[in-house]
Design brief:
This protein has 255 residues and is of the alpha/beta class. The chain has helices at 8-19, 25-44, 60-64, 77-92, 105-118, 153-160, 167-174, 189-199, 202-207, 214-234, and strands spanning 2-7, 48-52, 96-98, 122-126, 140-144, 149-151. Strands 3-2-1-4-5-6 form a six-stranded mixed β-sheet, sandwiched between helices.
Length: 255
């Protein structure tokens, strides 16, 4: 069995931006999104499909870091007003849709993906969000619909020079501009990669930071709380209570 998990807002916003100059952009977005889901379900030979939406609300990440996702462009008003109808359209088209109040969609997707992979399913997450790369393993991959490539374990290691499970530690050191997350000032991607190659994890690095050169040692000694906070924010949760059965996600080809 194979589960395709669709990052609804990632797919919808990108397709809507491309359809903005059409005569009926919302209608074009709906049909193009459904077509994209069907094509990727066929590509993955998916037996189950879930489309995860996200309610606009305060989450635990905002409680920990008030600047979380600060500066992101707002959703176009027309699209925002149509989202409920759009979700109903996908449901009526046979796509299982969900959103959970108080939870970020990424955490819902991470929980569903991790539980399904643990249960023995192959899982594909459909998203351009690199944050999902931290979940990648032999049963779980991340598919970029727009650039037509798939993140598997080998591609993650080739791109980042790290294992998927090291990525949250990597972003803890470098920060993440996409989500407006802080890191350790003065530590960029190259230095962070070298440090994790040498020490293996952020925890070991912090304990053994006296072995680092003066610049890195001083930066870590001053900013270690920020690094730990950023790791908490960057790491996807896999403990969201979902409350549905796998049978609900059954996909029928040809829809």
């Amino acid at each position: 069995m194979h589960l395709l998990i669709v990052d609804a807002m990632n797919l919808i916003r990108r397709i809507y931006a491309a359809a903005a100059d059409t005569e009926l952009p919302l209608e074009a977005t709906r049909s193009r999104c459904l077509s994209a889901i069907a094509r990727n379900a066929e590509y993955a030979k998916a037996s189950h499909v879930a489309m995860v939406f996200e309610q606009k609300c305060q989450t635990w990440r905002h409680d920990l870091w008030s600047d979380y996702k600060l500066g992101r462009p707002p959703m176009p008003e027309a699209l925002q007003q149509d989202l409920a109808d759009m979700q109903r359209y996908f449901q009526q088209s046979g796509v299982f849709c969900l959103d959970l109040a108080g939870w970020e969609g990424d955490d819902v997707m991470a929980t569903l993906a991790s539980k399904a992979a643990f249960a023995g399913l192959q899982v594909t997450i459909l998203s351009t969000d690199k944050g999902f790369c931290q979940l990648v393993n032999s049963r779980l991959s991340v598919r970029n619909h727009f650039d037509r490539f798939t993140w598997d374990e080998l591609m993650v290691e080739q791109k980042f020079g790290l294992k998927p499970q090291q990525l949250a530690d990597f972003w803890a050191l470098t920060g993440d501009s996409t989500n407006h997350l802080p890191g350790v000032p003065g530590i960029g991607p190259k230095t962070a990669g070298h440090l994790l190659d040498q020490f293996g994890s952020l925890d070991v690095l912090l304990v053994q930071r006296e072995q680092c050169d003066t610049r890195v040692r001083n930066a870590l000694s001053e900013h270690w709380p920020t690094a730990l906070l950023t790791r908490v924010l960057a790491r996807l949760r896999t403990d969201v209570p979902l409350g549905f059965n796998l049978h609900d996600l059954r996909w029928q080809s040809g829809r």
